[in-house]
UniProtKB/TrEMBL annotation:
Domain Peptidase M12A, residue spans: 106-301
Binding note for cofactor: Binds 1 zinc ion per subunit.
Enzyme Commission numbers on file: 3.4.24.-
InterPro entries: Astacin-like_dom, CUB_dom, EGF, MetalloPept_cat_dom_sf, Peptidase_M12A, Peptidase_Metallo, Sperma_CUB_dom_sf
Gene name linked to the record: BP10_1
This protein's name: Metalloendopeptidase
Coiled coil ranges: none
Top-level taxon: Eukaryota
Residues spanning the membrane: none
A GO MF term: metalloendopeptidase activity
Keyword Magnesium: no
Amino acid sequence: MWPLGVFLLCSAVVTGMPPPQDPVVLNVTVGEASDHLSIRYGGPGATASHYEERINEIEPTELWNTGELFIDDPEPLDFHETNPVLTPYGRLEEGDLLRSPEEDRKGVTSGELWTDRRYNYEITNDASRSAIEAGIKFWRDHSCVQFQEVSSGSSEPRVLFVAESGCWSMLGCTAKHASSRTQKLSLGSGCTGFGTVTHEIGHSLGFYHEQSRSDRDEHVVIMWDNVNEAYKHNFKKVDTTQNHGVPYDLGSVMHYGSTYFSSNGGPTILTRNPTLQGLIGQRDRPSFRDVALMNRLYRCEELCSSPPPCQNGGYVSADCVCHCPPGTSGSACETVRGSYYPAPSCGGEISSEGTVSSPGWPALYPTGADCSWWVRPPTGRRARVTFTTFSIMQQVNGSCKYEYLSVRLGGVLDGGEMYCSKQLTGKQLTSTSPDGDLVLRFKSYKKYFMGSGFVATVEFV
């Protein structure tokens, strides 16, 4: 798909265009016919010309890999990029958890549950009502928590949904200790995506961030050298978290993403299995284990006279049956059929020489791809990759932010370097890790097609 409103500053791009003497600005748009590309170009003060060509006759890399690319509709930002450090009501911990001065004065313990599993709320920002109600419906349908909308004059402790600066919530039920009997949950500009809403409601029900769990170091590594000094406290472990027998979940909607609070654009969290790196930070919807934890946190099985004994990570909700995790089946989840995490559509482990390429090659790679390859040579040898073709999205605002191939020559726990445009064409890179491993991770832009891809040979030397 060709992008709408993409601007390039370059010298000469499409074959057949006369190269102008001055830098030009190209405005690339798709016409009414989906197979035509219209381009307006001209130097400063020059009369704009018009050029039209069938898309399938134009080499895309001639457009995207010359000069600097500017995108006027960037991807939505997450709370670590939008939230203030301080709100009028107190400081934000871990990026989106509000700790109020009133809580500090009263010595309130964060994470208290809602009494009798009843969550009262009041919506003050009607513009976001549909998004809020969708998030509430999810947790109502997937747990035993009862949600009740109350009026502004109610004396019941309640969550006050507001639209202030950023996306944030208090942790658990703090309203019972407040003189106003309310606690705020902000869904400001850009905060009404389904995953974000269910994330913030999760906090107000008592959820910490997933990477705050006491067992996180078994699954991820914090790259402290890449964390902004002012935000290192956001990565502390909360040893008092109660995991309730639910395994750590890289795919949790409560998990930080790879580069949260980075000081240099490098990763702040690496998964110990690099092929699972793309799982962390998703904001699509709560995972199975998020739901399992909510049901165990609020002891939903106690509503059943004879709750079934679920195995292999299954849980009982208000319907009094076992809900089984991915990879299991049976009335008690007794049959294990596969892994909890879905098999990746691209990437994986490479233990033999050959080639590695962007997904779909030689066809165009898809939008929104996130693929990781863990190249593991035999003992005593090192992995080497040589790029014969490399053409992906140009830098945006001076960095490979939206689309890139990261190369971790130091192995699993190396932050690596990000490459885009044609930076690796003809380049040869060799592992420097003690065991000879290297890791590749390819991410493509979520909205538009931007390049033709890459191919590299893999050797063990």
